[in-house]
Amino acid sequence: MDSLICGATTRSGMPCRGRVVAGGKRCRLHGGLSTGPLTPLGRLRCAENMRRVRINGPGPGHRKTDKARRRRETRARREKMWPKRQERKRLQAMRWAQKQRLKAGLPLLTEAELENFKNSHSSSTPWPGASSAF
Ligand SMILES: [Zn+2]
After folding, report:
1. How far apart are the CA of 109 and the centre of ligand 1, in A?
2. End-to-end CA separation in angstroms for the chain
3. How many Cβ atoms are within 10 Å of 20's Cβ, its own excluded?
4. What residues sit around ligand 1, an ion, with C-beta below 5 angstroms?
5. How far is residue 120's CA from residue 123's CA, in Å, rounded to a whole number?
C-alpha cells in the first residue's frame, strides 16, 4: 500500500495517477497537503482559535459579520432619516389586514378597532376643536 501513485477515484471513475506528496498518501489534489497542526504548540493554537470563534464569532474583517453589521447600520440610519417610514409601514399593514378581512367577508374593522373608534369620537362635538371655535 506504499505506492507513489495517488490512486484516489477521480470523477471519471479512474484511479488518479498523480504522484503522492512527501509524507502523505495522496497527490496534492486529493488531500495530500495539510495534515493539521502537529506540534503541541500548533495544536494548542488551533484549539484556542476554535474556542475564540465559537464564543465571539468570527472577528472583524470576516465577510459575513461585516455584511450583517453593515445591514444593521444602514437600517438604523434609514429609520433615523425617515421616521415617517415606520408610520407608513404600520398603515400599510393595517390596510393589508383590512383587505384580507374584506376578502374573507368579515367587517372591515375588528371589534377592538371599532371600540377604539367609538371612544375617540364620543365627544359631543362632531369634530375635535369645534367647542372652542363656538
Ligand atoms: Zn490524486
Report:
1. 70
2. 106
3. 19
4. 6, 8, 16, 18, 27, 30
5. 8
